[in-house]
Design brief:
Elements (H helix, E strand, L loop, with lengths): L12 H16 L6 H4 L8 H16 L8 H13 L21 H16 L4 H13 L28 H7 L10 H10 L3 E5 L10 E13 L2 E7 L6 E5 L8 E2 L7 H17 L8 H8 L6 E7 L4 H6 L8 E7 L2 E10 L4 H8 L6 E5 L1 H17 L3
Antiparallel strand pairs: 1-2, 1-5, 2-3, 3-4, 6-8, 6-9, 7-8
Helix pairs in contact: 1-3, 5-6
């Protein structure tokens, strides 16, 4: 004798429709339920009332008439979605969303543009792979007309000057034995806080020994022309930055346990404070960096006087550095802008290279030794032209 079917809570069509519409609402309005989504304050906000409103809108859009329902009913529906794993067990303090679908179409468009730029201009292999997958997966999604989802409204044109993709290297016959061959393993080590051993194969501009290097990798940074690795020396806690292509394809995992992402994040903040306080990517030698971290390192005041036609450009850069000071004046009837900043000694060379971009429109006033260096560079340039 056949068993009688056990009635389900959603056997009733209206209850079933409501549950499916709730799922559709979370898909259509990711973030629904947050105060930010509803433009309301945290004090006056009721998350489930916002969900209730959008659920009714969703029902109207698809032409389904829902019987009256309350916030308590929606709360029971949420329990059912958690039970089947459609919603996670976490608290949705910043709004409801399903799985990894935390973006609405407009947010997705912005993310795709950033991903495309990183894939094409910065040569990020992982971004290329993800972009190819997403382009296939989202081909049927029509956003603001045909092709709008993938149109590069925004991009970055800073392009890597070195090869970054091992597959492209092979195809072009430009194979390079660099760390780009182990990027996936390196990123895993960063997230899990593994200690690794790498090999520095070249150091053309600084007197740093080539050879094996035991480090905690902290972050991959793209800056102007190439990818760099920000890392920490295990024994000294010294932070440094190395261009990825100057590291060979040697990769050795030394610590399978890892020190955890919390330690990584804490140390990354310290390293970024050094980057923010300085100019450029060079973080200094161990002794001076330790003094700087303790707030005991004296800074060097630099003042550069800029003349037309670059004065307007200098004045536009209001956020060029957190500690900069800009002032205007007149010298021999010519308007100028004085750019003043206090920098750690490690950053003077990189700052000086930035000043050199402006050629005869810049004169260094302070410090005197840097002013003499700038003057000598101008004389050396004259010699190159045979004057």
């Amino acid at each position: 004798m056949a068993k009688k079917p056990i009635p389900h809570l959603y056997s009733d069509l209206s209850a079933f429709n409501r549950l499916l519409l709730l799922i559709a609402t979370f898909l259509r309005y990711p973030g629904i339920g947050s105060a930010e989504f509803s433009n309301s304050s945290e004090q006056d906000h009721n998350a489930l009332e916002a969900v209730q409103t959008c659920l009714q809108e969703m029902a109207h859009q698809v032409g389904i008439q829902l019987s009256s329902y309350s916030v308590n009913t929606i709360r029971k529906d949420l329990v059912m979605l958690r039970r089947y794993g459609i919603l996670g067990q976490q608290m949705y303090r910043w709004g409801y969303y399903l799985g990894t679908g935390a973006m609405n179409p407009e947010e997705l468009q912005v993310m795709l543009q950033a991903l495309r730029s990183q894939a094409q201009q910065q040569g990020d292999v992982q971004s290329k792979q993800v972009l190819r997958t997403l382009e296939r997966r989202l081909r049927g999604l029509n956003l603001q007309g045909s092709g709008a989802l993938f149109y590069p409204v925004r991009t970055q044109i800073n392009r890597s000057i070195v090869h970054t993709d091992p597959e492209e290297m092979m195809k072009q016959g430009q194979y390079r034995h660099t760390l780009f061959h182990h990027i996936d393993s390196l990123e895993t080590a960063i997230v899990q806080g593994h200690k690794v051993e790498l090999y520095r194969r070249s150091s053309p501009y600084r007197q740093v020994a080539v050879g094996h290097l035991q480090i905690y990798p902290l972050q991959l940074i793209y800056s102007e022309i190439a990818w760099y690795l920000l890392y920490e020396h295990p024994q000294s806690g010294h932070f440094a930055v190395e261009r990825v292509d100057r590291l060979s394809n040697y990769f050795n995992l030394l610590d399978s346990e890892g020190r955890g992402i919390a330690v990584q994040q804490s140390n990354l903040q310290v390293a970024h404070k050094l980057l923010t306080e300085g100019w450029g990517l060079y973080l200094g030698e161990p002794d001076e960096q330790q003094q700087e971290k303790l707030g005991q390192l004296p800074l060097t005041q630099v003042i550069v006087r800029f003349f037309p036609p670059v004065t307007a450009f200098i004045l536009e850069g209001e956020c060029r550095h957190l500690k900069q000071k800009l002032s205007q004046g007149t010298e021999n009837g010519v308007n100028y802008v004085d750019y003043q900043i206090d920098l750690p000694g490690r950053s003077i060379d990189e700052f000086y290279r930035w000043v050199n971009r402006f050629m005869n429109s810049a004169r260094i006033l302070v410090p005197v030794d840097l002013a003499h260096r700038h003057q000598q560079a101008a004389l050396d340039l004259l010699k190159l032209y045979g004057s």
